[in-house]
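ok trying this again, last paste got cut off
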Amino acid sequence: MTHEDAEDAVQEGFLRAYQALDRFDPAQAFGAWLNRIVANAALDLARRRKVRNAEEISESIPATFRDPAVSGELRERLEAALAQLPDRARAVIVMHDIEGFTHAEIGEMLSIPGGTARSDLHHARQKLRVVLGNLRD
């Protein structure tokens, strides 16, 4: 997601949260409730766009994990492979492996149990391995 897309998703999420404020349950944690709304707005935006480019992914990766040997071709393959995954599978991989969220946090943001987030991550990684095939080719 580009910086502009992220800003759009946050703005849309906050607008939705404001409109749904009367439905907020004070027994819930406000941050988790707001995070879930913003995450859903981001997923909706991603569904509408259906496109991720390599620069979007590299902007999310912390600088300490960047490998200068990674070629543009490898990034293109990763981008294409991620684009082939279902939205939720792609979201779980990015949220866990790139952004560093825990299974429980991902579950809260996507309104699914933490165990389901863990299972989704496992299955998403398997799909990604199949799509990527042998990287040495």
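PB: full thing came through this time. The chain has two domains: 1-50, 57-137.
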